[in-house]
Automatic annotation (TrEMBL):
Gene Ontology CC annotation, any one: nucleus
Localization in the cell: Nucleus
Keywords for this protein: DNA-binding, Nucleus, Repeat, Transcription, Transcription regulation
GO terms classed as biological process: cell differentiation; regulation of DNA-templated transcription
Molecular functions per Gene Ontology: transcription cis-regulatory region binding
Organism: Zingiber officinale
Span of domain Myb-like: 11-63, 64-114
Source organism, top-level taxon: Eukaryota
Name of the featured protein: MYB protein
Main localization category: nucleus
InterPro entries, per database record: Myb_dom (IPR017930), Myb_TF_plants (IPR015495), SANT/Myb (IPR001005)
Amino acid sequence: MDSKKTTPPNKLGFNRGSWTAAEDKILLDYVAAHGVGKWGKVPKTTGLNRCSRSCRLRWLNYLRPDIKRGNISEDEEDLIVRLHNLLGNRWSLIAGRLPGRTDNEIKNYWNTVLQKKVKVKSINDRIKCKSSTRRTEPSTPLINEHGSCTGKERIEAVLINEDEMLDASSSLSVGDRDVFEQLASFDTDRLWPRSIFDFEFFFEQDAGVWGGDDSLASVVWW
DNA sequence: AATTGCGCCAACCGCTATATA
DNA sequence: CTATATAGCGGTTGGCGCAAT
């Protein structure tokens, strides 16, 4: 049906991978004639070589007439963040509050865009919270919404604590992540007792080490 | 111009809950 | 009551397009 299809059929011989326009039309015609549901009957009655689950998903996430197309608005984004705070990864519940959006779309948007934004905001908030112990104020925000560092004092890594090290690295840009991985391989026990490993910044500046009055807030000049 | 790396997102998979025969 | 089918959910995968090298 489609020479470009690269995903092999499943165990039962049903097509997998992206849907073609012709397949969509068959499914739309089926729904127009028989209504939504009974997806298992689709291949038998239409000859469409797709399993029931694939048909259902295609309808719910793409062919449904009430699907909203286009970018997620700022209002929607704000709502997703607030609902996620409230509900966690309950994507279908969250999607239920956003008319025309699917759980899959919201899950994807969270995983690719919002998770990063929320993390960066959290890091910036925590940096701001500790900034009174700094000798000189950094350009702010230290990390922009893309996870890249801004201003003269480009952050090489932000280590919140032992457990969050990898998380912090995932919010940094690619180049930063390379540096982070080098930093992560350091023998941190020798550099700092773990108890003060709570809040270190690495800046692309003259080498040197400075610890603020608060022992939990050390700044390491790179 | 060709290759590589990466982000995005559609689709799949495993699992559970519910409905139906 | 049991077996099977269907629906629903959330985590994960993999193809595609594009930017960087």
